Amino acid sequence: MFGLRFRDRIEAGQLLGRELAKRLGANADAIVLALPRGGVPVGAEVAKALNAPLDVFIVRKLGVPGHEELAMGAIASGGVRVLNRDVLDYARITQQQIDAVAAREERELSRRETEYRGNRPPLDVRGRTVIIVDDGLATGSTMRAAVQALHAMEPKRVIVAVPVGAAQTCEDLRAIADETICLRTPEPFEAVGLWYDDFTQTTDAEVHALLSRNPQ
Question: 154 is in which domain, residue-wise?
Answer without folding.
Answer: 2-57+120-213
